[in-house]
Amino acid sequence: MYQPPPTTRSTTTRKPTTTRTTTTIKPSPLNHFASKNPKTYKNPFERSVEMSDFCTTNFPTGNVEQKRLCQEILANIPDRIIHLEGQLRSTIDMVNRVKTEQDETSFEIINELGAVDMDSKRLEEKTEEQEKKLNRVTRTLENLKPRIGEIDNMYEKYAYMVDVMEKKKQVLEEMMDGVNTIHSTMKAMIVNEMAGSKKQAQPSSYRWNYQPVPMSSSSDNAMPKQYERELYEIAKAKPATIGKKTDAKDCSEFDGPNSLDGKYEMNGIRDVRGKSLTVRCEFTKGKGWIIIQRRVDGKTNFTRGWNDYKSGFGTLSGGELWLGLEAIYRLTMKTPMLLEIIMQDTDGRTYTALYKK
């Protein structure tokens, strides 16, 4: 084991066996430590020379091997120090780069935070603006609630008035139909009277088919009683069946300048009970047509079973009707017929189709 020499040094000096080099290097980053104590700081080469003297001083001449090992170790110290200095410089550069990147990142984050803050402020402003608009709309709706109630009341009154007007219109239309029927009947009576046909004027040949229409209110029922009685007396002359012929098989046999729309007996055609077939004839442009179906106002239910469609239903006096499959078969079984279909839409446009076969 190595024993350190005594603290008292000999005054005799010896030159070191190692040769001092005069190589110079650039100042190391470690030199900044010298500013703290410049009197005691020494560069690595100066310290290596002193340590070389240390090997010569502390190892006698007889201990050559230990001295050689000491000198080899001391010779590698400058390279080791230079290597460590390079690593230190690299570390310092890396630290500086990291610090620069951190500064740049911090600057970007600060900018982004500023932008986010501005966006947040704009969003808050827009939110406040939308809340103000919503409050205005709410106040407007609150103010309109009484008006909505008034509008509802006006709508109910209007609907009631429309309903009343529709009823009045229906009553007037029925009255007009009655007046037209009375007019046609009176015309027929005048023609028959002029022709000297007293038979058609006998009361037994006619039946009463007039029914006064009830009005919707007392104010609407303003028809004078005298006028109503006159209509009653005139309507008594309306025949139940307008025309009869012995061998008639279709309405064209009743064509004439004074032909009237109504019920006609076809004595040339018998129904299943052996009676004369009664149909409704209408005369258009001098031609007599048999009405097999009429649908106008929806008052008659057409959703029926087979028996009703076989025998027929409705009224022949001008309302809705279906003549019946049995009657249609007996009318067309021996005589070729033309089929005309007339349809009218809600706008008053009329469409017609004519079938010859």
Automatic annotation (TrEMBL):
Locations listed in the record: Secreted
Domain Fibrinogen C-terminal residues, every copy: 242-357
Ranges where the record places region Disordered: 1-41
Principal subcellular localization: secreted
GO cellular component, one term: extracellular region
Domain of life: Eukaryota
Extent of Low complexity compositional bias: 8-29
InterPro entries attached to this UniProt entry: FIB_ANG-like, Fibrinogen-like_C, Fibrinogen_a/b/g_C_1, Fibrinogen_a/b/g_C_dom
Keywords, alphabetical: Coiled coil, Disulfide bond, Glycoprotein, Secreted, Signal
Gene3D superfamilies recorded: Gamma Fibrinogen, chain A, domain 1
Pfam families documented for this protein: Fibrinogen_C
Presence of the UniProt keyword Disulfide bond in the record: yes
Record protein name field: Fibrinogen C-terminal domain-containing protein
Species of origin: Oikopleura dioica (Tunicate)
